[in-house]
Design a protein that fits this description.
Number of domains of chain A: 1
Strand content of chain B: 35-45%
Strand content of chain A: over 45%
Distance between the termini of chain A: 47 Å
CATH class of chain A: Mainly Beta
Shape of chain B: elongated
Oligomer: heterodimer
Structural class of chain B: mainly beta
CATH superfamily of the largest domain in chain B: Galactose-binding domain-like
CATH architecture of chain A: Beta Barrel
Helix content of chain A: under 10%
Largest sheet of chain B: 6 strands, mixed
Helix content of chain B: under 10%
Order of helices and strands of chain B: HEHEEEEHEEEEEEEEEEEEEEE
Radius of gyration of chain B: 28 Å
Distance between the termini of chain B: 81 Å
CATH topology of the largest domain in chain B: Jelly Rolls
Largest sheet of chain A: 22 strands, antiparallel, barrel
CATH architecture of the largest domain in chain B: Sandwich
Shape of chain A: globular
Number of strands of chain B: 20
Structural class of chain A: mainly beta
Chain lengths: 562, 334
C-alpha cells in the first residue's frame, strides 16, 4: 500500500514560503499621478467646468511575515494622499490585503483571507474586460493601474475573501496524479434583517491520467445561509462541469483537444421553476512546431438558461456613473461612458462577483458580454497563432461565428460575428538592435444581425483598432505613442429584465458613435518594476453626432512595485 | 493512438449531444405583441344565443387576433342593468378564458333578459358588439333565509319604533338586486339607536336550528345591502344566537351570541359575506368574551337577528336588504 500513492506538494510548498530565510519582508507598491485635463465640447457650453487638475500619491505597504518555513502572513495597508490635502484632509488609510497561507502537515496547502482564485471559464473566471485587445504604451500604463486597483491579474482570477485549500496525490499506476482544490468565500454579509449571508464555494478534482489525458470535475455554488435573515427566500446557483484535455505530442506537430461541458441551476431554493441548462465547449488545436503556427477550431453551445455568475460577472460595472467631466454643454447632458473612460477611470472596475445578470454595453461588446460563458450562444470559433522563431512577429487571431440558442421576443435568432486580432511586432529582434522597439496592434470587429421580418430587425456593428509603439531612444528611455479608433453604429433591441433576470420587455437601442484617441510621451524605466511615464493624450468623441467633444489630458505616472 | 481515438469518440459523442434548436421558443414578450399591428382574425362570437343558467348551462365567447392584447368583455343586462366583466390577455378568446356561468361583477343580479355583450381592448380602439339571452338565471347553492319574494314569513319576529317616516316592509320595484322584491328599512328615531329589527328564527323554517354544518370555517353568511345615497348613518347589526345546550332556545346569559356590525356608508347594493368563525362577540359594539362555550357552533344557530340602528342625533336613516343566504365552503358568488 505504501507504494500505492504518494502525497506531494510539501517540499515544493515549503520552499516557496521560506523567502530566503527572512522572517519579515516589506512588499507593496507606490504610485503617483499628476494629471491635467480639458474638455472641449463642440456645442456651446458656458456652464460646465472645462479643466480639471488633480493627482495623488499612494503607497501600499505590506508586511510579509514568515514565522516558519511553512507559513506566510501578509498584511498590506494603503496610505493615499490627494494632492493639496494635508494634515488629515484628503489622506486616507485603508487595509488593502490580508492573508495567511502555508502548508499544513506538509500535505495541504491553504490560504485564508484575501485569495485570488479561479477554476474554469465556465465556473469561476474573471474575463478580460470588453474588447480588450492589445494595450501598449500609454494605454498599457493606464490598464496596469486599473488592473492593480481592481485586483485583476493576468491569470483571470477574482479577488475574494475566504479560504482555499489544495493538495495532490501521486499514483504509481493507471493515474499519474490527482489534484484537489477547494474554496469558500463570502460574497455579501447579512444585514441582520432581510439580506442573508451569501457564500460562494466549490472546488475541483483534476485527474492527470498521463501526459496524454487530463480530466477535471468542477463544481461551484453560490448559496445563502438560511436563517441569517428573516422572511427572505434563500438563493442558489450551482454549476457542475467536466473538463477534458488531451495532447498528442509528436516531434514536428502537436494536437490538443480541450473541452468543458456541464450544467447549471439558478433560482430560489424552494422554487421548482429554477432555471436549469447546460453547455458544451470543445476545441481542437493543431500546432506545427517548426513553423510556429497553431490553428484551432472550436464549437460552443451555451444554453439560454445557463447561469454561472462566478464566470459571467463582468469586470466593468456599466451602472457606474461617469465621474470625469460627467456633464457638459449648456443642456448639461450626461457624458456617456466611452472606451476612453474605461481606461481612464479605475472606479469602473468590479472587484466582486455579482449574483444576477449584469448590465453590459452593446456598443462595446454585444457578442460575448459575459465572456466565453455567455448564455444563449452557440456556434463555431477558430483561431490562429503565429510566432516566428526570431520572435519578430506574434500574431493571435480569433473569429467567432455564433447565434442565439433561443430567440428573444421572436423565434428568429440573432447572428453574431466577432473577430479579434493581436499583432506584436518586435523591430529590435528583426534588426538585431539592442534597444527595444515594439509595435502592438489590436483590432476587433463585432456584428449582430437579425432578419427584419416583419419587425425586430437588428443590425449593430462595432469596430475597434489600437496601435501602440514603444521605442527605446537611449537606455531605459522610451518614446511611447498610441492611436486607437472605435466606432459603433446600428440598432439593437435590448432585453429589459426583472430582478429575477426574466425578460419583461424590450427597448430600442440606436447608436452612431465614433471615438478616436492618440497619445504621445516618454517613459523612463528605473528598473523592471519602477518607471516614470509622462504623456499627452487626446480623445475625440461623437456619440450619435449629437454632442461631439474632445478630451485632452497630460498625465505623469510614477509607478513602483517592491 | 488507440487512446487518442477513444478521446475523439468521447468528444464527438459530447458534441452530438448538443441541444436541438429551440426554434419554437423565445424569451420575453412577443415582439409581435409589442410592435405588431392589431387585427381580428376570427370575429367575436357567442357560443349560445340563449342560455339557461338554472339548468347548469354556460356560455362562452370566441375571437382570434393578430397579437396578444388586454381584452375585456362586458355583459350588461338590458332590463336589470346587471354587469359581468370578463378580462384576459392573449391573442385569442376561448372557452377556457371566457366561460360565463351567469354570475355578476356588479349588482344587480341578472334576470331573464337580453344582455348586450361588448368586447373592447386596453390599447386598441376596436369594439365588437353581440347579444345573449338569459332564459334561466343562475341558482345558488346554500340555505336561503329569504329573498323576500314570498312576502313576510309569519315565523319571523319584527319590531319597529314609532319614529317619523318609518318604513319597514317588503317592496317590489326596480330597486331589487335579485328578482323583484327586497326589504326596505327607513325612519327617524331621535331617542334611541334602534330603528327596528327582524329576527329570522330557525323555527320559521321548521327546525330549532339552521341546517348548517358544525364546521364554522365552512359556513358563510351572505346578504345584499343597499346604501342609500345621501345617508351614511345606517348601522346594520346581525346577531347569531346559539342553542348550545340543545334545549331548543337561546339563553343570553349562558350561551353564545355572535354579532357583526356594518356601517352602511356606501351607495348602492353591495354583497356582504361573513365566515361564521370570523364573527366576533360584541357587547355594546365592543369585542367581548362570549357567555357560553366560546365556540362558534354553526350547527346550533337558532336565529339570525337583523337590527337597523342609527345614531339618534344623525336623523333619517335608510337602507335595504335582499337575498340572505348561508353558503358552504365560500362566499356567495351571485
Amino acid at each position: 500500500m505504501k507504494s500505492f500513492l504518494l502525497i506531494f506538494f510539501c517540499c515544493l510548498s515549503a520552499a516557496a514560503f521560506s523567502q530566503d530565510g527572512k522572517k519579515v519582508q516589506f512588499v507593496g507598491g507606490a504610485r503617483s499621478l499628476i494629471s491635467h485635463g480639458t474638455l472641449d465640447p463642440e456645442a456651446e457650453d458656458t456652464i460646465s467646468r472645462k479643466k480639471s487638475t488633480g493627482g495623488y500619491a499612494l503607497i501600499d505597504l505590506g508586511f510579509k511575515i514568515n514565522p516558519n518555513a511553512q507559513t506566510e502572513i501578509l498584511g498590506m495597508i494603503r496610505i493615499k494622499n490627494d494632492f493639496g490635502g494635508f494634515w488629515g484632509a484628503g489622506v486616507t488609510f485603508d487595509v488593502r490585503q490580508l492573508y495567511v497561507r502555508g502548508v499544513a502537515g506538509k500535505i495541504v496547502r491553504y490560504q485564508i483571507g484575501n485569495i485570488d482564485y479561479k477554476l474554469t471559464p465556465y465556473t469561476f473566471y474573471n474575463n478580460d474586460f470588453d474588447l480588450q485587445m492589445n494595450s501598449s504604451a500609454a494605454l498599457r500604463v493606464k490598464e496596469d493601474v486599473n488592473n492593480y486597483e481592481s485586483f485583476a491579474t493576468n491569470n483571470n482570477t477574482w479577488r475574494q475573501q475566504g479560504a482555499a485549500v489544495d493538495f495532490g496525490l501521486n499514483f504509481p499506476k493507471v493515474i499519474k496524479e490527482v489534484k484537489f482544490n477547494a474554496f469558500v468565500t463570502r460574497l455579501n454579509p447579512s444585514n441582520l434583517a432581510n439580506i442573508m449571508e451569501r457564500l460562494y464555494g466549490g472546488g475541483n478534482m483534476i485527474i492527470k491520467q498521463s501526459e496524454f489525458l487530463t480530466v477535471g470535475l468542477n463544481h461551484v455554488s453560490i448559496f445563502d445561509l438560511k436563517e441569517t435573515a428573516v422572511g427572505t427566500p434563500a438563493y442558489k446557483n450551482n454549476v457542475s462541469t467536466l473538463t477534458l484535455a488531451s495532447t498528442l505530442n509528436k516531434e514536428n506537430w502537436r494536437l490538443n483537444i480541450n473541452g468543458e461541458t456541464g450544467f447549471s441551476s439558478a433560482g430560489l431554493v424552494e422554487d421548482t421553476n429554477a432555471l436549469t441548462d447546460y453547455f458544451v465547449n470543445a476545441k481542437a488545436s493543431f500546432e506545427l512546431k517548426k513553423i510556429g503556427l497553431t490553428a484551432s477550431l472550436g464549437y460552443m453551445n451555451n444554453g439560454a438558461d445557463f447561469r454561472s455568475f462566478g464566470a459571467q460577472s463582468k469586470r466593468i460595472n456599466y451602472n457606474q456613473v461617469n465621474s470625469y467631466f460627467d456633464r457638459y454643454t449648456n443642456d448639461q447632458v450626461l457624458r456617456s461612458t466611452s472606451m476612453y473612460d474605461l481606461y481612464n477611470d479605475p472606479t469602473y472596475y468590479n472587484a466582486s462577483i455579482s449574483t444576477g445578470i449584469m448590465v453590459f454595453n452593446p456598443a462595446i461588446n454585444n457578442v460575448l458580454p459575459f465572456g466565453v460563458a455567455t448564455f444563449n450562444r452557440k456556434g463555431i470559433y477558430t483561431s490562429i497563432n503565429y510566432q516566428d522563431k526570431k520572435k519578430f512577429v506574434n500574431l493571435d487571431a480569433t473569429y467567432y461565428r455564433l447565434s442565439e440558442v433561443r430567440g428573444q421576443g421572436t423565434s428568429e435568432m440573432k447572428k453574431f460575428d466577432f473577430a479579434k486580432t493581436k499583432l506584436d511586432i518586435n523591430v529590435s529582434n528583426m534588426l538585431d538592435w539592442k534597444k527595444a522597439q515594439t509595435i502592438n496592434v489590436g483590432w476587433a470587429y463585432q456584428a449582430t444581425n437579425r432578419a427584419p421580418s416583419p419587425f425586430g430587425g437588428v443590425s449593430l456593428t462595432t469596430q475597434a483598432l489600437q496601435v501602440g509603439g514603444e521605442f527605446e531612444l537611449v537606455e531605459d528611455l522610451f518614446l511611447i505613442g498610441n492611436y486607437s479608433y472605435f466606432m459603433s453604429r446600428g440598432n439593437e433591441l435590448l432585453a429589459v429584465r426583472d430582478v429575477d433576470g426574466t425578460i419583461v420587455n424590450f427597448t430600442e437601442y440606436h447608436i452612431q458613435a465614433r471615438e478616436s484617441y492618440y497619445a504621445a510621451g516618454l517613459r523612463f524605466n528605473f528598473s523592471e518594476d519602477v518607471y516614470l511615464s509622462a504623456f499627452y493624450e487626446r480623445n475625440g468623441n461623437s456619440d450619435s453626432g449629437l454632442n461631439p467633444y474632445a478630451l485632452n489630458q497630460v498625465m505623469i505616472f510614477y509607478v513602483m512595485k517592491f | 493512438m488507440k487512446q487518442y481515438f477513444l478521446i475523439l469518440l468521447v468528444g464527438t459523442l459530447v458534441l452530438s449531444a448538443c441541444r436541438k434548436d429551440e426554434i419554437d421558443k423565445f424569451d420575453g414578450p412577443s415582439l409581435t405583441d409589442i410592435y405588431g399591428e392589431f387585427s381580428v382574425f376570427t370575429t367575436f362570437d357567442v357560443s349560445l344565443d340563449s342560455v339557461n343558467f338554472t339548468t347548469g348551462e354556460t356560455v362562452y365567447f370566441t375571437a382570434q387576433f393578430s397579437k396578444s392584447v388586454d381584452w375585456k368583455i362586458k355583459i350588461t343586462g338590458q332590463t336589470s342593468g346587471a354587469i359581468k366583466v370578463l378580462t384576459g390577455f392573449g391573442s385569442s378568446i376561448s372557452q377556457s378564458t371566457s366561460t360565463w356561468i351567469g354570475e355578476i361583477t356588479e349588482f344587480p343580479i341578472f334576470k331573464n333578459e337580453i344582455c348586450d355583450v361588448e368586447l373592447s381592448f386596453l390599447n386598441e380602439p376596436d369594439v365588437f358588439i353581440d347579444q345573449v339571452k338569459i332564459i334561466g338565471t343562475k341558482t345558488n347553492a346554500g340555505f336561503l333565509i329569504s329573498d323576500f319574494e314570498s312576502g313576510f314569513n309569519a315565523g319571523w319576529t319584527t319590531f319597529v319604533q314609532s319614529g317619523a317616516d318609518m318604513d319597514f316592509q317588503i317592496k317590489t320595484d326596480a330597486f331589487a338586486p335579485e328578482n323583484n322584491s327586497y326589504f326596505n328599512m327607513a325612519g327617524t328615531v331621535d331617542w334611541d339607536y334602534l330603528i327596528g329589527y327582524v329576527y329570522f328564527k330557525a323555527s320559521a323554517y321548521g327546525a330549532p336550528h339552521y341546517p348548517l354544518s358544525s364546521n364554522p370555517n365552512n359556513e358563510y353568511f351572505n346578504i345584499m345591502l343597499y346604501g342609500e345615497p345621501g345617508t351614511t348613518n345606517s348601522i346594520m347589526l346581525f346577531q347569531f344566537t346559539e342553542d348550545e345546550d340543545g334545549n331548543g332556545g337561546h339563553s343570553t346569559a349562558s350561551e353564545d351570541m355572535y354579532s357583526q356590525e356594518i356601517l352602511v356608508n356606501w351607495e348602492g347594493w353591495r354583497l356582504i359575506s361573513l365566515k361564521y368563525s370570523d364573527i366576533p362577540c360584541l357587547v355594546n359594539g365592543q369585542p367581548a368574551a362570549p357567555n357560553g362555550n366560546g365556540v362558534h357552533n354553526s350547527d346550533k344557530i337558532t336565529s339570525v337577528n337583523m337590527l337597523h340602528l342609527a345614531n339618534p342625533a344623525s336623523g333619517f336613516a335608510k337602507s335595504k336588504i335582499d337575498y340572505m343566504i348561508f353558503t358552504q365552503n365560500g362566499p356567495l358568488k351571485p
